[in-house]
Amino acid sequence: MKKLITTLLLGFSIFGQAQNINLISNVPNRNTTSLNGIWNYIVDPYETGYYSFHHDVYDQQKKPSNAAYFNNYHAVNKQELVEYDFDKSPKITIPGDWTSQVPELKYYEGNVWFKKSFDYNLKDKKRLFVYIGAVNYKADVYLNGKKLGTHEGGFTPFNYEVTSIVKPKDNYLVLKVDNTRHKEDVPTLNTDWWNYGGITRDVTLIEEEASFVEDYTIQLKKNNAAVISGFIKINNFNPAQNQVSIAIPELKINYKGKIGADGILNFEIPAKKISYWSPENPKLYEVSIDFNGQKLNDKIGFRTIETQGDKIVLNGKPIFLRGISIHEENAKGGRANSVEDALRLLNWAKELGCNYVRLAHYPHNENIIREADKMGLMVWEEIPVYWTIEFTRKETYQNAQDQLTAAITRDKNRACIIIWSMANETPISDARNAFIKKLVDHTKSLDSTRLISAALLTQSDSEGFGTINDAIGDYLDIISFNQYLGWYGGKLEDAEKILWKTKYNKPVIVSEFGGDAKAGFHGEKNERWTEEYQEYLYIQNLKMIEKIPHLSGLSPWILVDFRSPRRLLPGIQDEYNRKGLVSNQGEKKKAFFIMQDWYAKKKKEQN
Ligand code: GCU
């Protein structure tokens, strides 16, 4: 009984305060109302709307203060002192970062408040949730002056129940967003990408029944391509409503199951004649979950992914990952989020000859994942455990783990995702090894079906061999590493002489290589920053890479030039990392065609 009450309280507290319940999955196919569009914002560098002049925190005070911005207060007469007004403040489009929308905020790192007013007529016994696709970096969220919660992490979704707070008219959803970087955050202070602040993904209201399907996994059972297995989890389970069915009409499946007292149904369903998902056949099945008369639909692909020795094996067949790395940026030089943004990036990857993309260095938005699923592009998804994370700090670990949990919860039914990546170029130490091992174990506890990797740094041994000698290789299914011959060191002329060795008999992915070129800047192949230099760098690197033992894939750095505050060479970088094969203006550089030819040959070899 205690368990049942706990479950009930998880959904909403008896005091009407919202609780940050577990993440609701498959939001695009639920009964939703979008809060995207024009919001008001207030730039608040001194957090005047959050702290009193003696730095008391307004949202922890018993008596609500009209000075607290989350109360969206308006003066009731000509005498009253109120020093803010959302409705008279500037407007911004949400989703969207402030860097690319408000020129004055280009370099701003600090606090900005956002407010959206809306009406909502919530019918009796229905429940309402606010679901936020991502906020970079930290969000304090309020509805009608009530604190819903605080979320950290710039690239993963979160939600709150607002059933007992929402009103039919004049609701005001207020977010305090802080993109200040901190050493102890994930990512840490130092990255090679722009710190886009704001509400960077969709804001959605989700309406549900009293008991509803909160989350589920419907995938092939590990090591058994003839069984579809997983779980269905009911929020606020009522034992009187314990029937649920899973229909996959094309597979002639109409499975009926009984939900346990813990609100969970675990199932295994024999399935024949599955058309397995692959880049050549990105087959997605219509799946429908029927719980208590509520239908929740999804489109799910079924495939197996495993390693056999030093091969990556998809549906029982060894594959080579013809990839490219991608940052989440749109044509306007801001955070990408829309389907259109996703297609712009993925179509270039397809044109390059890719069957795989490395979505760096953080979980990208759900649109690009679902578009990759449809297009047949396999995906490496990673969390921003990047460079010098505070590996000894337990709260930092918890933050990383929470981001990983949210990414896996959101995307675990997407066949295109074949790799979860734990980290990028993290310096070797005992604390870092332990941190990564815990993340690996956590990943396996949530999803034992996908492969696990991390982008490692390389060393060269006394004989000049490139070596991958990193203890966490023991925990990884795939050994991936970044190397920058000819850009950060080494001579391109020596490329064919450079040999690599690894102690692991595991598949190897070269997760990054590349060099900068300013599109349209031409010269000799030995002149850095020219397209010819980048072209020669690709030609030489590929000669070296194709000799790497156990090579099973590569994802050159990077598809498109992207903004970085570290890249300041005037007239060449101008705050852009220029390693793109395509410029941020959409111009294909000469190296694009080198890579395209190499992939075309690779594809022919494989078929
Ligand atoms: C690193 C890092 C990237 C960075 C790239 C570069 O390997 O993983 O995030 O942008 O190198 O230096 O351009």
Automatic annotation (TrEMBL):
<dbReference type="Pfam" id="PF00703">
    <property type="entry name" value="Glyco_hydro_2"/>
</dbReference>
<keyword id="KW-0378">Hydrolase</keyword>
<dbReference type="InterPro" id="IPR013783">
    <property type="entry name" value="Ig-like_fold"/>
</dbReference>
<protein>
    <recommendedName>
        <fullName>Beta-glucuronidase</fullName>
        <ecNumber>3.2.1.31</ecNumber>
    </recommendedName>
</protein>
<dbReference type="InterPro" id="IPR008979">
    <property type="entry name" value="Galactose-bd-like_sf"/>
</dbReference>
<dbReference type="InterPro" id="IPR023232">
    <property type="entry name" value="Glyco_hydro_2_AS"/>
</dbReference>
<dbReference type="InterPro" id="IPR006104">
    <property type="entry name" value="Glyco_hydro_2_N"/>
</dbReference>
<dbReference type="InterPro" id="IPR036156">
    <property type="entry name" value="Beta-gal/glucu_dom_sf"/>
</dbReference>
<feature type="domain" description="Glycoside hydrolase family 2 immunoglobulin-like beta-sandwich">
    <location>
        <begin position="214"/>
        <end position="303"/>
    </location>
</feature>
<feature type="domain" description="Glycoside hydrolase family 2 catalytic">
    <location>
        <begin position="306"/>
        <end position="538"/>
    </location>
</feature>
<dbReference type="InterPro" id="IPR006103">
    <property type="entry name" value="Glyco_hydro_2_cat"/>
</dbReference>
<dbReference type="InterPro" id="IPR006102">
    <property type="entry name" value="Ig-like_GH2"/>
</dbReference>
<dbReference type="Pfam" id="PF02836">
    <property type="entry name" value="Glyco_hydro_2_C"/>
</dbReference>
<feature type="domain" description="Glycosyl hydrolases family 2 sugar binding">
    <location>
        <begin position="98"/>
        <end position="207"/>
    </location>
</feature>
<dbReference type="InterPro" id="IPR017853">
    <property type="entry name" value="GH"/>
</dbReference>
<dbReference type="Pfam" id="PF02837">
    <property type="entry name" value="Glyco_hydro_2_N"/>
</dbReference>
<keyword id="KW-0326">Glycosidase</keyword>
<dbReference type="InterPro" id="IPR006101">
    <property type="entry name" value="Glyco_hydro_2"/>
</dbReference>
<keyword id="KW-0732">Signal</keyword>
<feature type="signal peptide">
    <location>
        <begin position="1"/>
        <end position="18"/>
    </location>
</feature>
<comment type="similarity">
    <text>Belongs to the glycosyl hydrolase 2 family.</text>
</comment>
